[in-house]
Design a protein that fits this description.
Strand order of the largest sheet: 1-2-3-4-8-7-5-6
Oligomer: single chain
Number of domains: 1
Radius of gyration: 20 Å
Helix content: 40-55%
Distance between the termini: 73 Å
Structural class: alpha+beta
Order of helices and strands: HEHEEEEHHEHHEEHH
Largest sheet: 8 strands, antiparallel
Number of strands: 8
Shape: globular
Length: 222
């Protein structure tokens, strides 16, 4: 084997070794957080998330989808799953693997679809052409957050003044409701401590649902 070939082999081995080291460290760090949060931890792969949560578009991107490094259990009476996620786009030389992290929290009452995320430059451009989101009494909140729901009243009921203040003071994530769950995620992997931040945002949203809204949703669930 030539000297250059040996160097290539050593370089590839070093890259693989570094990846293994950081993968193991991440699993350990997430397992530690899960233990502190009262959750169980599994490093294994679960390919069912896209089917179990079909309304969450972030879980249905690309192909070869899988959740892993999964922390799960019950916290404050609600089922929770925190996880890393990967999916693949393209094929062959154009194949790219994407990673991000998320938490999913189950609500104790039925919900309705709702999406909340940070406003961006593209939103302001599409707004100019009439693709507007829902605006709220707080100018600051409306400037900083992009909110969509097929039921405007539901959005206003959920995002009242107290919830707006909570979201403005919280770390920023993309948030989505389906009919029974809230997903909180970013388009990249969380640092281990950010799982707690994301879970806190989901819990804070559900804890702030007004009592009249909880009564309405419980009546509809009978």
């Amino acid at each position: 084997m030539s000297g250059s070939a040996v160097l290539i082999v050593l370089f590839v081995a070093a890259v693989i070794g570094v990846a293994i080291y950081f993968g193991a460290k991440r699993r350990k760090d997430i397992a530690t957080w899960a233990s502190q949060a009262g959750l169980s931890f599994s490093p294994g792969t679960d390919r069912s998330f896209d089917n179990r949560y079909p309304e969450f578009g972030c879980l249905r991107r690309g192909h070869s989808r899988a959740a892993f490094n999964i922390a799960s259990g019950v916290r404050h009476g609600r089922n929770v799953e925190a996880f890393d996620y990967r999916y693949v786009t393209g094929q062959g030389k154009n194949r790219t693997t994407h990673h991000f992290s998320a938490i999913i929290l189950q609500s104790t009452v039925p919900l309705k679809p709702l999406r909340i995320r940070s406003e961006n430059v593209l939103d302001k451009l599409t707004e100019f052409f009439g693709a507007d989101d829902i605006d709220f009494e707080s100018d600051r909140f409306s400037r900083e957050f992009h909110v969509k729901s097929p039921d405007k009243k539901w959005a206003f009921d959920v995002i009242h003044q107290g919830t707006m203040a909570f979201l403005l003071a919280s770390p920023r994530f993309a948030i989505e409701f389906d009919v029974r769950h809230v997903i909180v995620w970013r388009n990249r992997r969380f640092k281990p401590e950010q799982f707690e931040d994301a879970l806190g945002v989901a819990e804070g949203l559900l804890d702030r649902l007004p009592e009249y809204l909880l009564r309405e949703q419980r009546r509809g669930d009978r």
